[in-house]
UniProtKB/TrEMBL annotation:
<protein>
    <submittedName>
        <fullName>Amino acid permease</fullName>
    </submittedName>
</protein>
<keyword id="KW-1133">Transmembrane helix</keyword>
<feature type="transmembrane region" description="Helical">
    <location>
        <begin position="67"/>
        <end position="88"/>
    </location>
</feature>
<feature type="transmembrane region" description="Helical">
    <location>
        <begin position="109"/>
        <end position="133"/>
    </location>
</feature>
<feature type="transmembrane region" description="Helical">
    <location>
        <begin position="299"/>
        <end position="323"/>
    </location>
</feature>
<keyword id="KW-0472">Membrane</keyword>
<dbReference type="GO" id="GO:0016020">
    <property type="term" value="C:membrane"/>
</dbReference>
<feature type="transmembrane region" description="Helical">
    <location>
        <begin position="496"/>
        <end position="515"/>
    </location>
</feature>
<feature type="transmembrane region" description="Helical">
    <location>
        <begin position="194"/>
        <end position="216"/>
    </location>
</feature>
<feature type="transmembrane region" description="Helical">
    <location>
        <begin position="343"/>
        <end position="366"/>
    </location>
</feature>
<feature type="transmembrane region" description="Helical">
    <location>
        <begin position="423"/>
        <end position="443"/>
    </location>
</feature>
<feature type="transmembrane region" description="Helical">
    <location>
        <begin position="544"/>
        <end position="565"/>
    </location>
</feature>
<feature type="transmembrane region" description="Helical">
    <location>
        <begin position="393"/>
        <end position="411"/>
    </location>
</feature>
<keyword id="KW-0812">Transmembrane</keyword>
<dbReference type="InterPro" id="IPR029485">
    <property type="entry name" value="CAT_C"/>
</dbReference>
<feature type="transmembrane region" description="Helical">
    <location>
        <begin position="260"/>
        <end position="278"/>
    </location>
</feature>
<keyword id="KW-0813">Transport</keyword>
Length: 573
């Protein structure tokens, strides 16, 4: 059994399976319509979204103006992973993203784990985006004088929490602010069934259904819509950056790192959430005209463009107002309201609706294609690989994804979803970066292993050990303290102890990879991709990790009850 858990799928067989029947009698091939411009546009669409319009405020509150450095650090981290993705995408130009790459390099069990983790990135991440879209959309309606009933625009948990704040304010004799008065009116006017106040987020549900229909109809229609949305939001973002610099007060950039580097790192989840999704490009490999050439270019172009925009936005935000005021849900709109430019904040709201719509679109394209690949391998029922005879899209997987996102968006709080999504994404990045080291060697007589993009080789034999020594020099005291207090950490897993244990695991991983790199002369790019992403994982709160481990337990139970026996690599299949 141990050997069968890590059975690998040869590259040539993956390419052959992709050409076979889609599972319901229709041809399994998808419509090839995407070029490098479309892929770059999709990458920008996936990255410039809820992060730049919401989570960037929390990150700036923790790190101050130095948050711009964290965007650069995160971009470099993603850059290492993006190069590894590009190598895989060039040699394995098949839908499935990190799931397919893990199947080639690590084997079936790891492939299933990463496929299950990607649901956190795409499907569950889209729930957060849909909720964010609903908030900006409601603001737009208010601007036009249209008012939806409050109980149709919020989830029950948020509404109940807001009403509790109302009661606390009344008990303390504090005058109600406009937002608290709104929460009070919303709670008291909501319909009541069986003693429960009914709250549902209809706009979030509606936009997900609309996007699901669009992705069901076809990739060509999705491509045109994405390109339009991306051009529009880039124009608006550039406009905001240019106008914002006229209101910058340089004094707000001092001190540059008010809470030290530790404060900057507290924004890891928020900042990394802004970058998730550039890997979604790789899920459209089978719909690219020239995937081996265009996928690597699309990934790198989109990453560079988005990083420049994020850094400029970070400087504008922290320069217009003191960083301590930025812990708000809509920081871009907030800063322009603060300088008396409410009309610009309205434009920001329009752009936010457009930006989050494009993120929804790209993520709703990605998830069905991962399920399609898992179904082709026998790990999910055949229906998930069904290709529509007219639209040439994975129609059943698209419908299931739509329901998986739309229904929870009616009543779910965004809460932990940001951290959970970041864990799923970083987990994928670690495995893809490590997987490059395990790819079969490229040979001229095996066309299935030759791509048009080759990961640049930089001998890490001396570079990685030097970096490891620098790591030990600066964090040696923490390593020693973590080892001394490991017993206490195990007793307080949910209260931060898990993070110390994760830090020790990272240290062990770093030491192991350093030794292996020195002995085997590994390429420094994938090694740094693994180490950078693994370190960022240690910065995510412990509670989110516990939920993630629970999610993994559910996924493994499904694999061992169905996928392990139904796999096409299993004996008898």
């Amino acid at each position: 059994m141990p050997n069968s858990l890590f059975r690998k799928k040869p590259l040539q067989r993956i390419l052959e399976d992709a050409k076979q029947d889609g599972g319901d009698g229709h041809a399994g091939s998808l419509k090839k319509v995407l070029g490098v411009k479309d892929l770059t546009s999709m990458g920008i669409a996936a990255v410039i979204g809820a992060g730049i319009f919401s989570t960037i405020g929390t990150a700036a509150f923790n790190g101050g103006p130095a948050i711009s450095l964290l965007f650069v650090i995160t971009a470099v981290t993603c850059g290492f992973s993006a190069l590894c993705y590009a190598e895989f995408a060039s040699r394995v130009p098949i839908a499935g993203s990190a799931y397919t790459y893990a199947y080639v390099s690590f084997g079936e069990l790891i492939a299933w784990i990463i496929g299950w983790a990607l649901i956190l990135e795409y499907a569950i991440g889209n729930i957060v985006v849909a909720i964010s879209w609903s908030g900006y959309f409601n603001n737009l309606l208010e601007g036009f004088g249209l008012h939806l009933p409050a109980w149709l625009t919020a989830d029950p948990g948020t509404a109940k929490g807001a009403y509790q704040q109302v009661q606390e304010a009344i008990a303390a004799g504090t005058p109600l602010t406009p937002s608290l008065q709104f929460a009070k009116d919303a709670w008291e006017t909501a319909p009541i069934i069986a003693g429960y106040h009914i709250f549902i987020n209809v706009p979030a549900f509606a936009i997900v259904c609309f996007i699901a229909v669009l992705t069901y109809i076809g990739i060509k229609e999705s491509k045109k819509t994405t390109n339009f949305l991306v051009v529009f939001k880039i124009i608006v973002i550039l406009f905001v950056i240019v106008i914002g610099f006229f209101f910058v007060e340089p004094n707000n950039w001092s001190p540059f790192m008010p809470n030290g580097f530790e404060g900057v790192l507290r924004g890891v989840s928020a900042v990394f959430y802004a970058y998730i999704g550039f890997d979604a490009i790789s899920t459209t490999a089978e719909e690219c005209k020239n995937p081996q050439r265009d996928l690597p270019r699309g990934m790198m172009y989109s990453l560079v463009i988005c990083t420049v925009l994020y850094v400029l936005i970070a400087f504008v935000l922290t320069g217009m107002v003191p960083f301590t005021t930025l812990k708000v849900a809509d920081p871009l709109a907030f800063v322009f309201d603060s300088v008396g430019q409410e009309w610009i904040s309205y434009i920001v709201s329009v752009s936010a609706v457009v930006a989050t719509t494009s993120v929804l679109l790209v993520f709703q394209l990605g998830q069905p294609r991962i399920w399609m690949s898992m179904s082709r391998d026998g790990l999910l029922p055949k229906k998930f690989a069904s290709i529509h005879p007219k639209y040439q899209t994975p129609w059943f997987s698209t419908i299931v994804t739509g329901f998986l996102v739309a229904i929870p968006s009616l009543f779910m709080e965004s809460g932990l979803m940001t951290d959970l999504t970041s864990i799923g994404t970083l987990f994928a990045f670690v495995l893809v970066s490590g997987g490059v080291l395990m790819l079969p060697r490229i040979t001229g007589d095996n066309p299935g292993q030759v791509g048009k993009f080759r990961l640049p080789y930089i001998n890490g034999r001396f570079i990685v050990p030097v970096l490891f020594l620098i790591f030990v020099y600066f964090l040696g005291d923490r390593i020693i303290n973590s080892l001394k207090n490991i017993g206490t950490s195990l007793q307080h897993i949910a209260d931060g102890g898990l993070q110390e244990i994760l830090f020790l695991i990272f240290g062990a991983l770093a030491a192991t990879l350093t030794v292996l790199t020195a002995l085997r002369k590994y390429n420094v790019i994938p090694i740094l991709g693994v180490l950078f992403c693994a370190y960022l994982l240690t910065e995510i709160p412990a509670l989110s990790w516990l939920y993630f481990l629970g999610w993994m337990a559910i996924g493994l139970s499904i694999y061992f009850s169905y996928g392990y026996f139904k796999s096409k690599l299993a004996k008898g299949n």
